């Protein structure tokens, strides 16, 4: 390749690794030689020489969930722009296989590991990473861990922004729907919602803050009951897009509508709308936390 490009072997190596100060003209000559000779880089051989594999391990709790699917897409795009490949695996919905998956990736010689989900096992995984000498980053919707490299959305700020948006539209009786009390993500979002109500001197009613699973059926039932018992509510913040969709059906059951002259349904932190084959998109506002 060096002979075909008319450069030194070290120059070819620098172009392949993306390191060093190589002129665009020289880089183009090397790349043309690569294409003409049909060269395919052997990453395993390169890792033996330079100590890096160019592969990042990504362990995701559950790819069927929109949060993790979009997070995976975003991380993959960002890493590929840096010349890295992603080795993707699932750690189980409750994170029971996280440690096993981490050990497998470490044995494959990955340059680092990103763990999305199962943050409650963070201390154990952090110790394994330190022992293996593998850089570790957590990607989570919320975290109570200190001293870890972490990618996460600002749940409290998102809820504050959406609550303020509702208040500026004239709403003063605002409820919350969705999430479980044990969820730190929910706690952060509800905290932002409550703090904003207090900031603007608006009433906070604990009975207006309802838990429910991320299920359209449960959200619809909870929304119907909430409005029947508290008909003066004019806006509802929903935990995520699944809850918001169920809440919209709950509005219909309660004889109300979303939008003007009805209850407005908002998501404090959600994802881009996924088209449903059986219904049109409900008129709501979504706060996106893109991956």
From TrEMBL:
CDD domains: HTH_LacI. The keyword Repressor applies. It comes from the Bacteria. GO terms for molecular function: DNA-binding transcription factor activity; transcription cis-regulatory region binding. Residues 1-50 form the HTH lacI-type domain. Keywords: DNA-binding, Repressor, Transcription, Transcription regulation. SMART domains: HTH_LACI. PANTHER family: HTH-TYPE TRANSCRIPTIONAL REPRESSOR PURR-RELATED (PTHR30146:SF148), LACI-RELATED TRANSCRIPTIONAL REPRESSOR (PTHR30146). This is Maltose regulon regulatory protein MalI. It comes from Klebsiella pneumoniae. The gene is degA_2.
């Amino acid at each position: 390749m060096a002979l075909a490009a008319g450069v030194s072997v070290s120059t070819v190596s620098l172009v392949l690794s993306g390191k060093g100060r190589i002129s665009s003209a020289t880089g183009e000559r090397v790349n043309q030689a690569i294409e003409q000779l049909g060269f395919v880089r052997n990453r395993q051989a390169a890792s033996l020489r330079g100590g890096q594999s160019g592969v990042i391990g990504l362990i995701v709790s559950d790819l069927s969930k929109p949060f993790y699917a979009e997070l995976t897409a975003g991380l993959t795009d960002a890493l590929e722009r840096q010349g890295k490949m992603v080795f993707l695996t699932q750690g189980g919905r409750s994170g029971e296989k996280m440690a096993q998956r981490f050990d497998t990736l470490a044995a494959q010689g990955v340059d680092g590991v990103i763990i999305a989900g199962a943050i409650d096992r963070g201390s154990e995984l952090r110790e394994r990473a330190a022992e293996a000498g593998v850089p570790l980053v957590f990607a989570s919707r919320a975290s109570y861990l200190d001293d870890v490299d972490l990618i996460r959305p600002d749940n409290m700020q998102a809820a504050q922004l959406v609550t303020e948006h509702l208040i500026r539209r004239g709403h003063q009786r605002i409820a919350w729907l969705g999430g479980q009390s044990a969820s730190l993500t929910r706690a952060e979002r509800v905290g932002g919602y409550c703090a904003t109500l207090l900031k603007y001197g608006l009433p906070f009613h604990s009975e207006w803050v309802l838990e429910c699973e991320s299920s359209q059926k449960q959200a619809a039932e909870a929304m119907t009951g909430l409005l029947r018992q508290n008909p003066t509510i004019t806006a509802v913040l929903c935990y995520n897009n699944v809850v918001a969709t169920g809440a919209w059906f709950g509005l219909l059951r309660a004889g109300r509508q979303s939008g003007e002259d009805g209850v407005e349904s908002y998501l404090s932190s959600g994802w881009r709308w996924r088209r449903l084959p059986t219904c049109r998109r409900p008129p709501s506002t979504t706060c996106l936390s893109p991956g």
